[in-house]
Amino acid sequence: MFRSPFVVIVSLVTLWFVATFLVFPNANLLISTFLPQGQFSFRAIDKLVSSERAMNSLWHSFALAATLAVTVNVVGIFIVLVTDYFKIRGARMLWLGYATTLIYGGIVLAAGYNFIYGRYGFVTNAVRNWFPEIDPNWFSGYFAVVVVMTLATTTNHMLFLGSSLAKIDYQTIEAARNMGASTMSILWRIVLPALRPMIFAVTVLTFLTGLGALTAPLVLGGTDFQTIAPMILTFSKSTGSRDLAALLAVILGLATIVLLAMMNRVEKSGVYFSVAKVATPLQKQRIPNRFANAAVHVAAYVLFVVYATPVLLIVLFSFLQSSAILTGSITWGDFTLDNYATVFGTPAVLRPFVVSVVYSALASAIVVGGMLFVSRVLQKHRNPVTTMLEYLLHIPWILPTILIALALVMTFDRPNAMVGGQVLTGTTSLLLIAYVIVKVPFTLRLLKAAFASVPESLEDAARILGAGSMFTLRKVLVPLILPTAAAITALNFNSLLDDYDAAVFLYHPLYQPLGVAIKASTEGENNVDSMSITFVYTVLLMIIMGFTMYLVYGRGGSSTRRRKRRAGTVTVK
């Protein structure tokens, strides 16, 4: 392994990166929390127990996570069944409506719901025009956070549970029907048990999402419902309470590790179902009961309206003056292109969007470029050293983003020898480093899988023809995995565009990213004039994210369908 200069350089750079940005900052966070003066101290724990706000945030976070584990599963399983399992009229259109959360989320989603249903939202003001006694803060607190996060986090069900459902062998369902089983009995006793591993996996992911939620509680929670993450943000702003923020982040990280360990244990516990050697593709099922069929159709289309309405209103409101949204009434004279002219014609207004695009593009390119070499070394050389490196590179998957961001702030706020004696806190580079860190595990896993899928015979042939390892990598291997690398780059870019969790801790005041700018527009009545600008930002984000999703999934799906049509109607696997 170490005879190759390429492997040595990649290994040394990876070790430096892991030690400097993954291990040392998080270890420093633990030391500053529990060993503030070089001796073990319970001071942070005492402050946590004595702080009513902090203890309430813990309770709220776990209550939110438990609630979402139920509500997201109910809604998510339902939308997968009505789009992929049952014969429902307009299923393709329903899927498009449910998939709207794939193109917007995070702070953009929370701000959009706030501008539509919040205190100064259009729907709230329109209803108050007829019923003035309605509480303007009706869409806030626990209820609002649960509703928004339930709708926002069903994307895991659509992507992963739908894929698992398609793999069920239809012969099993046919056999059960021939034995007299009803449609509902087949669903409860065959289909859902077969999906149990994936349901458990998305439940754990949902629980973790609720536990570490920041944007929805921050924007919609109000003063009465704040969770751990907003409290960490609040406490981290003061030096005197930074240890309390660190302790809350540690608790969040420990909960994440425990839940991921539980998920891994369940995944290894056995096989839940078996399939035939030549599986028959799943066919959609009819609902025989007329009333049940009607009820499912009604519920499916009601959910479609709930999912699609915010997207349609955001596009509509991007062409309206803020005064029309505030009054809750729209006339033809309220429509304007001034909002788009302001965004594209005013450098100060366009600046946050450009900053986010630059940060996202740089981070996506850097992490894919770096992990391209690292994943090659890890895939080719399997030994204790590479195994240890691989485990360490997965640290960002088991720690919340806000914990990583807080650790970076507390570690690099003074000269550090590991980065050449530089102070990184307060600079433009620290946010870029954080973006690279959080995308390392996802990128590494997919690139390593891409390298593993390349036949070894190609590399052997290149070696026989006299090609060196670097030439083989550049001319043979990289062109084969380039489509995967491009897709990963696009997905990373998409997910970082509207980031708020890391940006709020690490952004430079002169280079405010889009997520922070959108959050600022939701704060109080003084910022309602920026509503329309925020809607324009959101529309632009949805266009970019939708185009990216089409490049990653749409073109691949279209080409696959074309290949199948050319191959004929029967495919032997």
Automatic annotation (TrEMBL):
The chain crosses the membrane at residues 58-82, 94-118, 138-161, 198-220, 244-263, 294-320, 357-379, 391-412, 418-438, 476-497, 535-553. It is found in: Cell inner membrane; Cell membrane. It holds the Pfam family BPD_transp_1. It comes from Cryobacterium fucosi. The keyword Transmembrane helix applies. This is Iron ABC transporter permease. InterPro entries: MetI-like, MetI-like_sf. The lineage of its organism: Bacteria, Bacillati, Actinomycetota, Actinomycetes, Micrococcales. One of its GO terms (cellular component) is plasma membrane.
